[in-house]
């Protein structure tokens, strides 16, 4: 075996390979050679056909479009009902205002009677009797905060 490959050596091999077949014969010789009898083959299987598959992306897109349409119609109906309710409330308020305007006729304040001046009358109720405060109770509670705790000190007061 040759381990050294030179350019000229490779060129010779490539030209020889183009005229010779893998078995070492030329194309003309191979055409002349009679084909060998091959044993009879059993019936070959039919080519398998791939089953058609269905992507769920199309179905999902259709379902999503239907859902979006459903949501849009629901929102539209709710907004329409809301507008109708607001119109109804506005009409009711306008009717109330009209009825109040009809009832509430502005009337001027009556003129005072200058020939009979106003004299306030004395009340018939009894006068209130005040109670005196008891300042001599003797005990007074005061709250002093120390360290978050409340201490109550009793002081005696004398008046």
Q: What does this protein structure show overall?
A:
This protein has helices spanning 7-19, 27-32, 56-103, and strands at residues 140-146, 149-155. The chain has 159 residues and is mainly alpha-helical. The radius of gyration is 59 Å and the shape is elongated. Residues 11-21 have a biased composition (Polar residues). Residues 1-10 have a biased composition (Basic residues).
Can you tag this structure with a few keywords?
TPX2_C, two-stranded antiparallel sheet, mainly alpha, cytoplasm, microtubule binding, 2 strands, elongated, 159 residues
Structural class: mainly alpha
Low-confidence stretches: 143-147
Major sheet details: 2 strands, antiparallel
Instruction: Count up the helices.
Output: 3
| Range of helix content | 40-55%
Question: On the 0-100 scale, what is the average pLDDT?
Answer: 76
Order of helices and strands: HHHEE
Overall number of strands = 2
Radius of gyration: 59 Å
- Give the distance, in angstroms, between the N- and C-terminal Cα atoms: 137 Å
* Cross-sheet strand order for the largest sheet: 1-2
Shape call: elongated
The proportion of strand residues reads 5-15%
InterPro entries: TPX2_C, TPX2_fam
Biased composition (Polar residues): 11-21
Keywords: Cytoplasm, Cytoskeleton, Microtubule
Biased composition (Basic residues): 1-10
